[in-house]
Amino acid sequence: MTGLDQGQVDWLYEQLAQMVEWEASTGRPRVLPLYTALVMVLFALRQNLAPDVLGEVFGCGSTTVERYGKSS
After folding, report:
1. What is the per-residue pLDDT for 10?
2. What is the rounded CA–CA span in Å between residue 11 and residue 15?
3. Which residues of 43-66 are buried (b: 16+ CB within 10 A; e: fewer)?
4. In contact, 49 and 40? CB cutoff 8 Å
5. pTM value surpassing 0.90
6. Positive or negative, the Cα torsion across 55, 53, 44, 65?
7. 42: nearest Cα among 68, 20, 18, 21
8. pLDDT at position 39, please?
9. What residue spans of the chain are helical by DSSP H?
């Protein structure tokens, strides 16, 4: 799905989790958990699908897909 094996995605997630504060203690919560957002961005980069299609696959809106893609 992402072009990486499970171990590579897990390693990337661990590295990313150390660099970003995903679940802030204040403000609006994120739509997707960090791991799911990572997989979505990797999948988007590999498959080059439209944001509305990715939103359907990952259960979020196309705006969320675009926002997470731009911050990557």
Report:
1. 97
2. 6
3. bbeeeeeebeebbeebebeeebbe
4. no
5. no
6. negative
7. 68
8. 95
9. 6-19, 34-47, 51-58, 62-70
Amino acid at site 4: L
Token pair belonging to 17: 């989790």
> Crossing angle of helices 34-47/62-70, nearest 10°?
90
pLDDT of res. 2: 84
Spatial separation of the C-alpha atoms in residues 41 and 8, rounded to whole Å? 14
Distance CA 13, CA 36 (A): 10
Contact yes or no for 29/40 (Cβ under 8 A): no
pLDDT tens, 15-71? 999 999 898 888 888 999 999 999 999 999 999 999 999 999 999 999 999 998 885
pLDDT for 72: 47
CA–chain centroid gap for 63, Å, is 13
